[in-house]
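#data-curation
PF: Archiving a pair of folding outputs for the training set. Convention for this channel: one message per protein, sequence first, structure tokens after, nothing in between. First:
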Amino acid sequence: YPTILSFIAGLIAYMINPHLADNKYYLISVILIVYWTMTWINLKGLHVSAQFASICTVIGMVIPMILIVLLAAFWILKGNPLQMHLNIHTMFPAIHESESWISLTAIMAAFLGMELATVHVKNIQNPQNIFPKALIFAITFILITMILGSLSIAFVLPKDQINLVDGVMQEFSSFFHVYHLNWLIPVIAVMILIGSLGGMINWMISPAKGLLLAAQDGFLPKFFQKENKHGVANVMLIVQAVLVSLMCLVFLLMPSVNGSYWLLTDLSTELYMMMYFLMFIAAVFLLTHDAVKGAIFQVPFKKVGVWILSVLGILGVIMTFVIGFFPPSDVNVGGFWHYEIIFGSGIVITSLPAGLFYWYKTCHAKEWEIH
């Protein structure tokens, strides 16, 4: 959450005073205000949050993404200088350079959370047909927009001037300055801000719903099973907000905002890789024990497909996890060992709840069997 919230704070700073994006205390304050406001909206019910997210996505993500690609295309057609040239050497990652491998962490982070939609599958009519199609459409759209959007930024902005927090607004500003459309800068900033809020609200409600289901299965104390009158896991959302508030303190541990942003991105990616590793292992386990017979959703090519996807997934997860321990050289993280200590501690601390949940489930297994 803090990474998305940092981006939101950077956008707000861009509209007020761009230098605020480098102020740790400003970022922490905005993150706390925005997150607790989004928590309040989520407490109003899934219907309200879903409508809010849908409107925000169209206004603040789809339209700006299409616009940034069109502006980049126009920039190229007008013969303006490019900061990156596409050729056989730049189109493929330089596998002999460590920076190319380190960038894999950020790329993987862009696709995290696709599985969160599954917690809402019970709310979908005919999920066997609708859900896979929606997932394929989402993956295709994300791939196209991410690739074209990233290339658009790389073509216009010099590498050393790209800021992880407000790089998107940097490019829009560059375009609008050239075409004397400076009045559009705050408009686009507001649109992207709205889109980010919509994305944020999705990231908040889905994990809370998943944890509610885990609590109902006995992995958490019954206290966490509570729902408000709107059918929302209110206790989960409040606990989640408190934990995110504490995580924001990482901005005080790193020497730069970019360093903090990278640390949070890296840490969340590593945790996800651990979860994905277990998920792929579980898929193989269920397959070998014939536990997938009669399943509602089927992987293409059945057993062969599951094995291929699981092996590829496990290899990708292990590779990303190892690379994640090496910070990029062009981001100020306060030194390699300073980063490793904070990063390693973060992984250990944030991994503890999973072990505690399993221990709780084991200790109370008989109690749940009785009920």
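PF: Second:
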Amino acid sequence: MRKQTIHIYPRHDKSKPNSYIPYLDANNLYGWAMSQSLPTGGFKWKDTIDVTEVSDNSRKGYILEVDLEYPSELHDLHNDYPLAPETMVLGGVGKLVPNLQDKTKYVIHYRSLKQYLSLGMKLTKIHRVIEFDQRPWMKSYIDLNTNLRKKATNDFDKDNFKLMNNCVFGKTMENIRKHIDVQLVKTKERGMKLVKKPNFSSFKVFSSNLVAVHMKRTKLKFDKPVYVGQAILDLSKTLMYDFHYNTIK
């Protein structure tokens, strides 16, 4: 963990003891998560599973869809960092929001679920379970970049080796629905022909005789391992929650 102390001096009263707001940050958070056991294949549906009986480094892993109850007696204790954050639309913008509400059909990695149960949340229903094979298949690559970053002597190399880890995570979560084809058009006739197509998205004018026309793709191949990205995101949360509730609290 990295710590930074924030100093604030509005109308400082020297007769009172100093107070600080510490800023804490996990070094290499996603790198740590990518070094854990991650899905490799062998997906199949299961009726149910007791996640408390599954070790963190088991050869089998699980993603579940569950209902969770957030007991009211935990609200004061957990108010500063609630478990099981959800994506909510606030002010017209989607945000990841930690909250103290019960969860319905919440999709979660089994290690996160184990942690939430250990911290007091209640599992009320299991809707679906997917089992998969897992192993720490990214660990050697992540460790290589992490060690090279430690040895780096300039900011460029430090950022480069950090990004070499982070970009791998980014590709696992890539949303191919956002991919577009761009056609550069120099005539009005060609531009109008593209605009009339059902997959037309938008355009950008560069000059009086050059326009970029953005077209949505009519065929998509879903070949990104989003299940790996989901596991990385949930595992990264377990490290943060573990530090908060088992070290700070």
